[in-house]
Amino acid sequence: MKHSTTPQTRRGHRGGPARRIGRTLALVLPVVMVLSGTLAVTRVNWSGSPSSSVLAASDVSAAAPAKAVSHAPQDVLRDRLMSELQDKNPGVVLTHLQQAVNGHPSLARHCSSIARALGQAAVRIYGASRAQSYARPVCDTAFASGVLTAHS
User: Fold this and answer.
1) pLDDT digits (tens, 9 = 90+) for 33-53
2) Are 116 and 125 in contact (CB under 8 A)?
3) How many CB atoms within 10 Å of residue 105?
């Protein structure tokens, strides 16, 4: 038996059916995975509130009336604290804001904007210097920032 040291190449033979299926899967499978992942993300309820029906992310027309009817928790909190500011001093209102954020950590990302709005409202009610006297480090001094922007 004679052994050759030069490798033999198969010309004209591109592989059998298994090789063709493997190549097809290598091209199609990533596309299918990306599409299924994208569709899964659009179907997830990202709002955090439980609901019986799930809306697709592209279904804006059905989501608009639901938003008009129900208010986001941060909007409800801001409105409640703004009305409370009419009756109580800003120090009490800031304490209630801090308690709300401590009780519901999901509100933390809205704390600065709420405190800033409270600071601006406090300037309208109490004047700039008196409103500034209530400033304290709630939500990274956003209340004081609101007082400053309303005064200038």
Assistant:
1) 666 666 555 555 555 555 544
2) no
3) 8
This prediction's pTM: 0.52
Q: Which among 38, 37, 42 is positioned nearest to 56, based on CA atoms? A: 42
Give the separation between CA 40 and CA 4, rounded to whole angstroms. 56
* DSSP string over 69-119: HSPPHHHHHHHHHHHHHHHS-HHHHHHHHHHHHHH-GGGGGGHHHHHHHHH
> Which amino acid does the sequence have at 146?
G
Distance of CA 21 to the CA centre of its chain: 42
DSSP 44-66: S-TTSS--SS---TT-HHHHHHH
AA identity, residue 93: V
CB 93 within 8 A of CB 87: no
At position 126, the amino acid (one-letter code) is Y
Model pLDDT for residues 75-97, shown as the tens digit of each residue: 999 999 999 999 999 999 999 99
CB 118 within 8 A of CB 82: yes
